[in-house]
Structures are given as C-alpha cells and as structure tokens.
C-alpha cells in the first residue's frame, strides 16, 4: 500500500450543473476524468484533510468502481475517516441525514438522479457540505476552477475493499466504516411522523398502497420503513431491488416513466395511495385513486396541513419554491401569514433559507419536496408526510386536494420538455426571448394580457449572493404564467423546459382536464418562443 502522485491534464468540461457533475459513464471512465474531479474537491475543501467524509451512491453502473477510486484518493489526501453506505448505497436524503447526524465535514454522492443507468447511460458526482446540502455555487465554482488547472492527483495503491460487510477497515491511515445505509434515515423518519397512526391505517384493512422504487436506491429504505416498521402488506414496495441499470428503465417518478405504478391506481381494485421515487431517492410522485397530485400542489397541500403532522405541529417558519414551481404554495403562505420565497431551480438555493430558519418546507415542480430535517429533497419523507396526513384526515387523496383547490384556488400546471436539442439552437431561442422581454408587458397575447416579463435573477437574502439568467418568466393578469429555461442536468445537447401555469379561482371550473385548461397558454408559448421553427420539434419529448 503506498501513496502515489499521478500526473494529469485538465479537462475543460467539469463545471457542475444544477446538481453536480453529470456525464455519460464513458466520459467518467476516460483516464483520470473522475480522479481529476475528486482531487479538485480535496484541493478546495481543506477541512476534509483530517476530517470525516460520507460516501455512497444510488447503485447505478460504475457506482462501486467510483467508490473504490474515491476511497483511495481520500486516503492519499489524508481524510481521517470515511463512512460508506453498505454495498456503496446511500440515497441522497440518507447521505444528507448522515452528514448532519455525525457532524461530518461533507459527503460525496454518486448519482445522476432520474437519468437512466448502464454502461452507455449516465453517471454523476456531487459534493455536499457539512450542513448536508448540495454545495453552493461558490463551492462548485471553486472546484470547477481547480479542475481547469489540475496537474496531478494523489492516490493510494491498494486492492479494492469489501463494501458489503458492515464494520471497519483501514486504508493506509484512513478508517473506512461500512455502515447500515438505512437505519439512521429510518430513525429520523420515526421522529418526524406518527408511525403508530400510520400503522393503524395499514392495519385497518381498508387502506392499500404501492410504492414504486423503480429498481433504484429507495427499495431497501421503503421496504424497511413501510413494510417492516409500519406493517404495510408485503408486496407494497414494487421494483424494490436496486439494479445497476434500473431494470432497463428510466428511474424518473412521473406519469410517463412510472406507468406500471399508475396502473395500480386505476380500475376496480385500485389502491388508495401510490407513490414513487427516483434513482437516488430524493424525488417523489404522489397518486391517489385515479388521481395525480402535481408536485406544486403537493407542496401547497403540505404547507396547509403541516400543523397536523407530528414533526411540524409546533408551526412552520416559512416556505420556499423554485421559480418555475406553480404559485399554489404562495397562496397558502399568504393566507397563513407565512414568509414565502422564490428561488432559482436547484435544491442548493434552499440551503441558506433552511440554515437561517427562514423556511421549514420547500419544494420544486420537478417532483421534489423537503423540509429542514435534512438539506436535500426527500422522496420517502414526502410519502410519509402524505401517509401521516391521510391517517389523520381519514379522507382520500382526491378529496384532500380538491378541497384545497376550493379553499385556495387551483393552479393548473404542466411542463413540456424538449430533450437533446441542438445547444446552439436552444441558446438562440433563449436569446431571442430575452430580446422580446422589454416589449411584452402591456401586450395582449391570444387574450392574455402580459403583466410582467423578465429573466429571473435572485439575491440570496442570507449571504447576498446573486444568481442571474435563471429563466424567462412571462406573467399574465389573473395569475397565469409561462416560464422558459434550459435544464442544467441533461447530458446530451440541451433540454428546453417550458413550464405552464393557469390559475382558476372558480370552483365550478376547477375539474377540467389539465390539457384542456392549458391549450391557450401552450399556443402562446409555442408562438412566443418559436419552438417549432427554432428546434425543428413538432412536439415535446415528455409532458409532465
Ligand atoms: C436536480 C436539482 C433540482 C432541479 C432538478 C431539475 O434534481 O436538485 O433542484 O429541480 O435537478 O433541474 P433542471 O431543470 O436544471 O434539469 P435531481 O433530482 O436531478 O438531483
């Protein structure tokens, strides 16, 4: 076993996106590619020397190889202790929980989230800071700057270690502890939710649910929490064994990719409640019998009902949502007199607000909800929040949501994604929209009068940092809105996202199909951004 220094050359494409560095597996397998990025983390995060690091991932292809490489680089860089999830598995929320619980100096999480896995698919790596949250931009930019000048990395020459047996090993001077991936996280959930009450719901015999782990990391977590600790019937968790290619599927919990789950909510034997999570366990989709809850509505309903939930019954400090998320939560916050924040897309932007106790709950349209219990969005947490709410209210998902609309109004919501379009075309489309912004206010587009149009910019109220060009917003009189932005998580070309929101306060008009309620706004968006002419696409790749 000896430390060696390897000469390397910088790669110029290692700038982290919305959530860490995501690339094709083949790119990560290029000689020194992963090593350079990891060394840049150690070069810029000086507390890791002599400190404790948490390490794990979603189990996708290359997870285990990457963990062995990172362990050897960590050892050569003087990390004193590394906590590794058994089998190399840690869901993103569990990693956040462990970073915080053991007061470590940060964590490295390996995941490309909802993107497919396998030798020709995606891989990703991100660094989380000691608060358990994704590194803020100042940190990711420092890491990126380092990758551009890196000339060497340090690594311990040693064979791979056993990742599947709990206990301690030594790598040079570094203590490596293989820890239970599930226990700490499951214990935290028991502090936040009324497990007795939820258990009674399952024992009532009239309540059934399915949780789709999508062959990804939440399988073991959901099985332990739902079936073992809460007594849900065996078989409640489907696709519960993590696989390196997610069973050949796309571990993205939406109506398109989780269609197997959707079928459980339809027909004569439909379950009362269904939910799914993504590759790394931080996203969630909530379904009732024949009923889909949009992530934006889910956040709003949670804010309105937080007082019923054990861990939040003392009151919440405030709420935040990412800019493209519908304004449903704002309406609840306004009625309850709670502060409400609009942040750029990216969970990292909630970190300061949570640390500073300005907010307790937060969420995003991209199937993410969470709270101050950790610093990541949390799929199973959202499922348990809903289960706890259902157990207390003894109503169906549909009744809870439709009553919510009656009280606060409905924000019809849909998102059109145009994936893998040409990068230059996508940027030209956004630039052309930017040029139109100044003339839009006051204009009427297909009967909708534009109240404001801007390129969203955010000043963090805690540290004053400024983030610009975060997406084009076009707001109409009456509360409807169109947002255009380019995704920061894709690995091929560019992905244009078009977010559409139509507000309806009249209860007699709240039960339309979303598609029907959105036709006008869709037309306006297509014309305004000249989508077909500029991208050549006649329809989106995915509608959620
Ligand atoms: C990440 C971020 C989220 C963001 C989502 C989509 O989630 O943490 O904040 O909403 O990507 O981002 P984009 O629209 O830029 O593709 P995840 O679940 O992929 O880590």
From TrEMBL:
Its cofactor is Mg(2+). It catalyses: alpha-D-glucose 1-phosphate = alpha-D-glucose 6-phosphate. Residues 14-153, 184-287, 296-408 form the Alpha-D-phosphohexomutase alpha/beta/alpha domain. Its EC number is 5.4.2.2. The keyword Metal-binding applies. PROSITE patterns: PGM_PMM. GO terms for biological process: carbohydrate metabolic process. InterPro entries: A-D-PHexomutase_a/b/a-I, A-D-PHexomutase_a/b/a-I/II/III, A-D-PHexomutase_a/b/a-II, A-D-PHexomutase_a/b/a-III, A-D-PHexomutase_C_sf, A-D-PHexomutase_CS, Alpha-D-phosphohexomutase_SF, PGM. SUPFAM superfamilies: Phosphoglucomutase, C-terminal domain, Phosphoglucomutase, first 3 domains. It is an enzyme of class 5 (isomerase). GO terms for cellular component: cytosol. Keywords: Isomerase, Magnesium, Metal-binding, Phosphoprotein. GO terms for molecular function: magnesium ion binding; phosphoglucomutase activity. Belongs to the phosphohexose mutase family. This is phosphoglucomutase (alpha-D-glucose-1,6-bisphosphate-dependent).
């Amino acid at each position: 076993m000896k430390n060696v220094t390897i000469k390397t050359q910088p790669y110029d494409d290692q700038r982290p996106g919305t959530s860490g560095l995501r690339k094709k597996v083949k790119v990560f397998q290029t000689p020194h590619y992963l090593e350079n990025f990891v060394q840049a983390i150690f070069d810029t995060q000086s507390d890791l020397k002599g400190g404790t690091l948490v390490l794990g991932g979603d189990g996708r292809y290359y997870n285990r190889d990457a963990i062995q490489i990172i362990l050897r680089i960590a050892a050569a860089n003087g990390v004193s202790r590394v906590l590794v999830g058994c089998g190399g598995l840690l869901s993103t929320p569990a990693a956040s929980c462990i970073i915080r619980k053991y007061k470590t100096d940060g964590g490295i999480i390996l995941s490309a989230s909802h993107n497919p896995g396998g030798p020709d698919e995606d891989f990703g790596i991100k660094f989380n800071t000691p608060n358990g949250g994704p590194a803020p931009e100042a940190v990711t930019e420092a890491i990126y700057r380092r990758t551009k000048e890196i000339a060497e990395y340090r690594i311990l020459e040693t064979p791979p270690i056993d990742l599947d047996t709990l206990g301690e090993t030594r790598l040079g001077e570094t203590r490596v502890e293989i820890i239970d991936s599930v226990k700490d996280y499951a214990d935290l959930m028991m502090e936040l939710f009324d497990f007795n009450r939820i258990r009674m719901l399952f024992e009532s015999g009239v309540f059934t649910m399915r949780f789709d782990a999508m062959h990804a990391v939440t399988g073991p977590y959901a099985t332990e929490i739902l079936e073992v600790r809460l007594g849900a019937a065996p078989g409640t968790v489907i696709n519960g064994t993590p696989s390196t290619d997610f069973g050949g599927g796309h571990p993205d919990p939406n109506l398109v990719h989780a269609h197997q789950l959707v079928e459980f909510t339809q027909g004569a034997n439909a379950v009362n409640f269904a939910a799914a999570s993504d590759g790394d366990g931080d996203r969630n989709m909530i379904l009732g019998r024949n009923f889909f809850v949009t992530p934006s509505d889910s956040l709003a309903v949670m804010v309105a009902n937080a007082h019923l939930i054990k861990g939040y019954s003392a009151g919440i400090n405030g709420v935040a949502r990412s800019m493209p998320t519908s304004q449903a939560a704002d309406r609840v916050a306004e009625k309850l007199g709670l502060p409400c924040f609009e942040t750029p897309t990216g969970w990292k932007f909630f970190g300061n607000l949570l640390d500073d106790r300005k907010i307790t709950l937060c969420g995003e349209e991209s199937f993410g909800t969470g709270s101050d219990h950790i610093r990541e969005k949390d799929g199973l947490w959202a499922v348990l929040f809903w289960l706890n709410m259902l157990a207390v209210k003894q109503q169906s998902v549909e009744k809870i949501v439709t009553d919510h609309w009656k009280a606060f109004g409905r924000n019809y919501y849909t998102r059109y994604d145009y994936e893998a379009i040409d990068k230059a075309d996508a940027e030209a489309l956004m630039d052309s929209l930017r040029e139109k912004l100044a003339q839009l206010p006051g204009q009427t587009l297909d009967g909708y009068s534009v109240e404001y149009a801007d390129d969203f910019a955010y000043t963090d109220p805690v540290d004053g940092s400024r983030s610009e060009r975060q997406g084009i917003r076009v707001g109409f009189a009456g509360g409807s809105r169109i947002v255009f932005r380019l995704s920061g998580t894709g690995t091929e070309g560019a992905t244009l996202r078009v977010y559409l929101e139509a507000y309806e306060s009249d209860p007699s008009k709240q039960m339309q199909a979303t598609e029907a309620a959105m036709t006008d706004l869709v037309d306006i968006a297509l014309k305004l951004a000249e989508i077909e002419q500029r991208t050549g696409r006649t329809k989106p790749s995915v509608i959620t």
